[in-house]
Amino acid sequence: MTVQTAAAPNAAPSAAPPLLSVSNIEVIYNHVILVLKGVSLQVPEGSIVALLGANGAGKTTTLKAISNLLRAERGDITKGHIDFRAERIEALNPSALVKKGLIQVMEGRHCFAHLTVEENLLTGAYTRTDGNRAINEELEKVYTFFPRLKVRRKSLAGYTSGGEQQMTAIGRALMSRPNMILLDEPSMGLAPQLVEEIFEIVHRLNKETKVSFLVAEQNTNMALRYADYGYILENGRVVMDGPASQLRENADVKEFYLGLGAGGRMSFRDVKHYRRRKRWLA
Prior knowledge:
Blueprint: E1 4-5, E2 20-29, E3 33-43, E4 48-52, H1 59-67, E5 75-84, E6 87-88, H2 94-100, E7 102-105, H3 117-123, H4 131-145, H5 147-151, H6 162-174, E8 180-184, H7 192-209, E9 212-217, H8 220-226, E10 229-234, E11 237-243, H9 244-249, H10 251-257, E12 260-261, E13 264-265, H11 268-277
Parallel strand pairs: 4-9, 4-10, 7-8, 8-9
Antiparallel strand pairs: 1-11, 2-3, 2-5, 5-6, 10-11, 12-13
Helix pairs in contact: 3-6
């Protein structure tokens, strides 16, 4: 499958029915500001899909549209529809979506600072009705993926490191036993070594538990190393999509998003010139 540009319709990452399908949605804030302009994407079951783009491209808004968190910020989906397991979900509240297996890990590593790490993790099981034994088993499973959290389980979350807080946020989401996690900017504010550790854990979770991920990320290089498929947003619309392996080798992606030209890493002047000539915005 070839990499798509904005002039062509978005291709499905897989022939199988997708777990999540976003179809031509538009999002407006305060009844005036058009933020998303006909965004379409799909996430096949058991895959990692990257949603890429610069700050302000519309990545977080896309995730909030899927998890129905827009109304808290006076945002509305005015066109299109969103399906999860072939069911329309735009009218469902976030709690109902969690019960259906769809949960978002917010940007900024939101934890309850006054609770311990373990108490934070247990709050993720608030929608479950299968009893304490099953929840405790799930907690131990989370600790196998995040052994550092088991060591820090009695520490107040507010006094843990940024990496540990990100692990806590992902672990809390796992406690709801989701089918899919929307992961917003997991690399933000973390050292490169920690970023790689987080993505390695996401990759392992995907392979071992079959949880699907839609990851919104500015770190294009890291995201495309671990994703199966990618979508690139510019100014609220999808301008390119394709298998991650093809996006990594695409000349436009290399030059503008990875800062690499034919002769190696580009200078700031080169990047400014490339911004002016981007073919998909012509």
